[in-house]
UniProtKB/TrEMBL annotation:
SMART domains membership: PUA (SM00359)
Lineage, broadest ranks: Bacteria, Deltaproteobacteria, Bradymonadales, Bradymonadaceae, Persicimonas
Protein's gene: proB
Pathway: Amino-acid biosynthesis; L-proline biosynthesis; L-glutamate 5-semialdehyde from L-glutamate: step 1/2
Biased composition (Basic residues): 58-70
Biased amino acid composition, Basic and acidic residues: 78-92
Name of protein: Glutamate 5-kinase
Sequence positions that bind ATP: K120, S280, D281
Cellular localization per UniProt: Cytoplasm
Amino acid sequence: MAPSLRNPCDPTSWRASGPKHGRPTLAHSRDPLATRGWLDLGGQLCGPTLRGVDASRSARRRRDRARRARPQSPPDRTGARGDGPRAAHRANEFINQRRKRRKPMKRSDWISKAEHWVVKIGSAVFLRDARRLDRPAFAALVEDVASLLARGKRVTLVSSGAVALGREHMGWPDEDRSDIPSLQAYAAIGQSRLMQMYADEFGHHGHKIAQVLFSRGDLDDRRRFLNARMALNQLHRLGVVPIVNENDTVATEELRFGDNDRLAAMTCGLVGADLLVILSDVEAVYDVETDDEGTRRFTEPISQIDADDPYLEQVAGPSTSGVGRGGMLSKVQAAQTAGRMGVPTVISAGKRRGILTEIADEDEIGTLITPGSGSGLAGKKVWLGAGARPVGRLLCDEGAVRALTQRGASLLPSGVSTVEGDFPEGSVVELADRAGKVFGRGLTVYGSEEIRRIAGHHSDEIEALLGYRVLDTVVHRDSLVML
C-alpha cells in the first residue's frame, strides 16, 4: 500500500522509509543536480533537499570568509576595485568609453557605413549664370547618382528647380520673384519639365523615377507621415528612384524659407537614411573672420564639425546664388535636424563633376557635419523631431529645464510657468525656458486651457482642479525630444 504523503517535495514529511516503502532517493551521483540536493521522484525532480540547502549555505559562507580575508585596494575612478579580472574588465571598459568620447569617428567611418543616401540638389546646381539651364551639368549629376546605384546604394533625391525652370521656360519675366502667386505659377510650369528631364537622363542608365510631392501639412500629421514612409519604402523595393519636392503650387510661406533643405532632413527620417548630402553652389562651410567694421570674410573650408557645435550657425552665411530660396543657414539647420536622428550631413558643391563618387570614395571634400550628442531618434520621436510642426509653446522653470535636459524626466504641471497658444490635448508644442530659448518638443497630455489651470501645481492636485486626471504629466518623456 502506498505511503501517505503530506508534502511530496518535503523529505521530512515521509512516514515510511526505505526504497521498499517509496521513500525518494537522491538522483544519480553523476547527475549534476544531485550535487545540489535535488530529489528524484520517479523521473520528476523535486527539491532542493535540506541537505542541499545546508551545503549551499556552507559553501556561500566559505566564499564570503575567503573574500574578506583577501587584501583589497580602494575603489578607483571606474567604480571597481583594482584587483581581479572583473575590476580589470571594468577599468578597460571605462578607458574605452573615455577614448570614444575623446576621439570622434572619422569621415571614412561615417561614409563607408552609409547604405541609404538622401541627396538634395539645389536650383543653382543645374543652372548656368543663374538663368540658363546647364543640361550637361544636369546629365553629369544624374550619371553620378547612377554610379551610386550601381554600387548597391539606395538613393532618394530631393530636388529643387521647379520655380527656376518655370521662369526659364517663360523667358525670365521681370515680375518680383517674391510674389507668391507668380512663384506658384512658375512651379506648376517648371515641375513637369523637371521630371521629364530626370526621366530622360535616368532612362539612359536603365533606371525609372517617381515624383513625390509633399506639403508641410503632410508631415505635420503622423498618419500621413507614416503613409508617406510606406510609399517611399515601396518605391525603393521596386527599384525606382524617388524624386521628392515640396508642392510649391499649393504652398505659401514655405516658398520663402528654403524648405527643400528642411524637407531633405525630414526625408531622412521618412526613409531611415544613413547620410544626407546637400549639393549647392558652394564648396563647403567656411571659417569666418570678422574685421573691426563687422565685415565677414570667409577663409578656410571646414572639413568636419559636430552638429552641436555653436560655431556652426555663426559661420553660416546668406545665399550667394540668387536662384535658390535657402542660404547656408538653412542648410546648416537641416544638417542639425538630420543629426538629431543620427544622420550625418555632407555639404558640398553640386557643379563639381563626380562629386557623389568622390564622397562615396571617402575623399576629404566638402564639410561633414556629424550628429551631436543624444542623437539617434527612433519611432514616434523621428516624427516629433523632424516632421511635426508645433502649435504652441510651454515655458518651463529652471528646475523643470534641468530635469528634462539632464535627467530625461517628464514635464510635470509644477514645472510649467506659462502656456502660449491655444491647442487641444495631443498637440505638438515647443518646450522653452523662461527666456524663450527652445530646448525640446513634445506631445501634450492635456489641452492648453487645462494646462493653464494646473500650471505650477503638484500632480496630486490635477483631479481636484480639473475634475479628472489622465496622467500626472503634462508631457510624458516617451513623447518628448530634445532639440
